[in-house]
Structure formats: structure tokens, C-alpha cells
Amino acid sequence: MKLVVVSAGLSVPSSTRLLGDRLAAAVSGRTPAEVEVVELRDLAVEIAHNFTNGFPGRKLSAAQQAVTEADGLIVVTPVFSASYSGLFKSFFDVLEQDALAGKPVLIAATGGTARHSLVLEHALRPLFAYLHAVVVPTGVYAASEDWGAEGLDGRIERAAGELAALMSGLGSARPAQDDLAVVPFAEQLAALRPAG
Questions:
Q1: Contact 164, 141 (CB under 8 A)
Q2: Are 71 and 2 in contact (CB under 8 A)?
Q3: pTM of the predicted protein model
Q4: What are all long-range contacts of 119-124, with beta carbons under 8 Å and residues at least 24 apart?
Q5: Which has the higher per-residue pLDDT, 13 or 173?
Q6: At what angle do helices 152-167 and 15-28 cross, to 10 degrees?
Q7: Per-residue b/e over 51-89, b at no fewer than 16 CB within 10 Å?
């Protein structure tokens, strides 16, 4: 099987690419897959030219083919102005209209603060639903404070299991009962009160 990671990170190293790599490793650990990474920053000029002349360059054409032929996709974007990056959106704008129809997709994003975590639900999920992809139930958002913190690994594993199950044709993966512990909101608020 072929798993393609589309990363819209702009810096080197990039937390966006790091999240994509961690997700890909988790999926590959559950189902054998050849992983290919598409770095959109390397395609920015060709994407812009595709908009103006209607033809993809050689690298962009190869990236489009990889995405179209993939058995599963992991798409990761940094958050800019409370949504996905323009480069991320532009890449999916230059794909063939039905390129993602029925394709399993895991959505993920990175940002400086947890306040942007809803970008998965208000921006990415609707975009891929419009493109007729099959988006796994669990999206993964990583804020700066999430790296090395409790919880990120569990979200990565849960989402990877869901994508691996779809890629293998097993339908949606059912998490184990203790897979995701839910902390009541009252307890979360109590933990924020100053000790006194």
C-alpha cells in the first residue's frame, strides 16, 4: 500500500513535517505501507504557475500523481489566520476534481496555541468532505505546548489506527474502551484554580 503525507510546513525543521512523520510512522506500524512525503514549500512556484498557465510543472505533476494513486493520505498544515495555509489550499485546488473521491484521509494541523485546534473541524474537515474524501473521525492538532506533553501520542495512535483500518479495507477502527480517557469538565476547571 502507498501512504502519502502532504506537508505544508514552511520552515526547516518544521513542526508540521514532524507531526506528519509521526503520524506516518504510526500508520506504518499498523499496516505495511510505502510512505512518500510531498513538501508543498518545494512546489510553491509550480503551484502558482499552474494557476496562471493551467499546466503543472514536472515536480507538481509527480506530486499530483502520488496523491491521486495513494491508498491513504495524511494532510498536515500550519494554521495561518485561523485556517489552513494558502499554499495548502492552493495545492488541493490544482488537483483533478475527483482525485480524492473515496480516498481515506487523516487531517492534522500545527499551531502556536491550542486556541486554533478547531481548525480541524471548521476548515479541514469541510474541505475534504467537499473533495469527497473519507476523513477519519480523529483529527490531530498539535500546539506548541503539546510536543512532549501527555495526550498527543494517544491522539496520534488513535488517528493512525483509524486510517490504517480504512486503508486495509476494515472500515472504521473501534478504539479500545480505555483508548481515550475523558476528564469531566468540572475536574478540568478545578485543576485550574489557584492553590490556596
A1: no
A2: yes
A3: 0.84
A4: 119/79, 119/82, 119/83, 119/84, 122/83, 123/82, 123/83, 123/84, 124/75, 124/77, 124/84
A5: 13
A6: 50
A7: eeeeebeeebeebbebbeebbbbbbbbbbbeebbbebbe
Which cell numbers hold the place of 93? 485546488
For 139-153, give one letter per residue: b (16+ CB within 10 A) or e: bbbbbeebeeeeebe
Give dist(CA 127, CA 117) in Å, integer: 16
- CATH code, domain carrying 24: 3.40.50.360
Range of the domain at 185: 2-192
**Which parts of 30-184 fold into alpha helices (H)?**
44-53, 58-69, 86-93, 119, 125-130, 152-167
Q: Which residue has the cell 495561518?
A: 80
φ/ψ of 8, rounded to 5, equals: -105, 20
DSSP state of 51: H
The number of domains in the chain is: 1
d(CA 184, CA 137): 21
Write down the mean pLDDT value for the chain: 90
Q: Which has more confidence, 117 or 73?
A: 73
Span 142-188, pLDDT tens digits? 998 888 777 899 999 999 999 999 999 865 444 444 455 677 777 77
Phi, psi at 2, each rounded to 5°: -115, 125
Q: Check whether the bond before 184 is cis (ω within 30° of 0).
A: no
Beta strands at 34-39 and 83-84: parallel, antiparallel or unpaired = unpaired
